[in-house]
Structures are given as C-alpha cells and as structure tokens.
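Our preliminary data section would be incomplete without showing what the modeling component actually yields. Below, a chain of 232 amino acids is followed by its predicted structure, encoded as tokens that our downstream tools consume directly.
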Amino acid sequence: LGHAAPVQGTPMRRIVEGLHRFQTDGFPTKRDLFHKLAESQNPRALFITCGDSRIVPDLIMQTSPGEIFICRNAGNIVPPFGEVAGGVSATIEYAVVALEIPNIIVCGHSDCGAMKGILYPHTTSTMPMVAHWLRHAEPARYVVEELHREKSEEEKLEILTRENILAQLTNLTTHPAVAARLARGTLRIYGWHYDISTGDVMNFDAERNEFVHLEPAERLPSATPRPRHDVG
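Predicted structure:
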C-alpha cells in the first residue's frame, strides 16, 4: 500500500529537521508549559483565518501554545449555521460552548488566492470544490460588483477581502451559540485584515463602520453588536 520515501533531498527534509530541532531545543525550554497543557487548555480567542502558508497566527500575534484556538480554511470562510455541517461550524460550536472562549477573530489577508478566485471565477474552473466553497463569499462579491466596478483590479481585491471579512462575521452571528453569547455580552467578535508585505493589521470598528489600524488600547474597537440581555 505504500513505501518509505527517503527524506534526504526532498521537500520534507526541512520539515523533519525543524521537528527534530523543536524536540531537542524548543520543547525543553517550555517543558513545564507543555506538561500543563497536556491536561487542559484555556484559549484567549478563536482565530478563524485563511489556510495560506504565509499566515502564521502564533508568529503574527507572538502567542504561546494554548493561547489561540485556530480554525483555517480557504478564504477564512464561515458558512451560515445549518448550511454546512462541517469542520468550521463544529469548531465554532466547540470553542464557544465547550471552551467558553470569549473572543472570536475573523482574519483575512492581502494577496489572498481565494479572493482572487472570487474575482476571477475562471481560475477555479478545474477546482469544483473550491468554487463551491467560495460561494459563501457571494455577498462580498456583489458589493464589489455593484458599488466598486470602476475601481482598479488591485483596489477591487482589497475591497473584496475586507467585505468578505464582514460577510463572514455576519455568517458567524447565525450560529446559535454565538448569537446567544453576543446577546448576553459574554462574547466579542473582531474582523482583521492582515497585510503580508507590511505586517500591518486593520481592525473593523463597528461604531465607526470602517477598518482602522489596530493599536494596543484599553478599549479595543470591535464588530460586536450591543448586548441585549443582562448576564446577571
């Protein structure tokens, strides 16, 4: 059914060597942390982002193991509740109900191949599953077509990427566990746009209805609707 492939001279060599360095050098420096994490986890946020290899959440946010619960897929998509009984919906439900994670971040990024697939549908003609998956970003595409058709292709891609973040935040609120906690004020949601070339992150501020530069602050602007019920 298979055979052992030589590691020497293959793309896997760097990966295996990296794993070995982690086991011999990296793991020992955090041994106590990993022993603690072997028993439980208490993440600060659920981070929903693209599967793009250039997006490395723990590197970008300088977080340690156990701090971020990560969900990745093409285009940082969140299907509306009930439409797809898949991994994204299950991950959201588990994060909110089982782990009681208090923050959810939907993070898109510059030069996103999935967004290019939405702008130029012919590029996904040989990838039917990708094309079907990207239908969850249709609201974003319509905004670009209806309101920004005169923009340059580069501008359209950036606008689409940000509109898709907002569309997925809307889809996120259709999930019952998320909706209930938003109504009670025990969950906050954020929409981020990460620029690969600069490292800058733009954060959607619902009160200002625009993306603003993300800066450390006591009160972080978010896309969270106002709570409608007292937690007590």
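The chain has nine helices and six strands. The chain has a mean pLDDT of 93. Preliminary results of this kind motivate Aim 1 of the renewal.
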